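Internal tracking record. Fields below are filled automatically when a chain is submitted to the structure queue. Please do not edit lines marked as system-generated. If the sequence contains nonstandard residues, flag them in the REMARKS field before resubmitting.
Queue: standard
Priority: normal
Entity type: single polypeptide chain
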Amino acid sequence: MPRDVPEIERLARCIDTIARRCWRGLPALMGKAPQPTREQLKAAFFFRTSSDGNDDLGVKIHGGEQGEGRDIKQADYFIDSIEPALESVAWDDLVGSVQWYAKTHPEEWRVYVEYLSQKETGRACWDGKSVVERLADKNNVSEAAIYDIIKKTPRNIARAVSIGCYELFIANF
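SYSTEM-GENERATED OUTPUT FOLLOWS
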């Protein structure tokens, strides 16, 4: 279980990346789809499609161009930060915490999911308004409040995992 702030922040980034970038990430986090595979997680963290068959995260030569070494740094980051964060919690505990958050904070969860579904599906701007502007108008709150929800939702879920509060919630029902 993550206990300190850097561990919670790493787990929050993992949750957000799974939700944004993994195939069926949100359903997986809600327990309605299988847990993402290691290959899907790597693809999500490197912003590659997981169906490209390229499982090699080793050395790539860029001929001295500006991007040289990027793949090595990304692979090191995944191995050093992301994998330990995900391995520090049981998947069922993570799913339970997401479900707990969705039930106890339904408005924030709805805004987060709606933002992701519009932003990540290319609906970033309709009628001259951004996703955040539309969500702020729809919910009668400021754009700053929407940004706050988007930023804090994965953190709050990571905190819930770290203290096991979803277990208390489940035990009372």
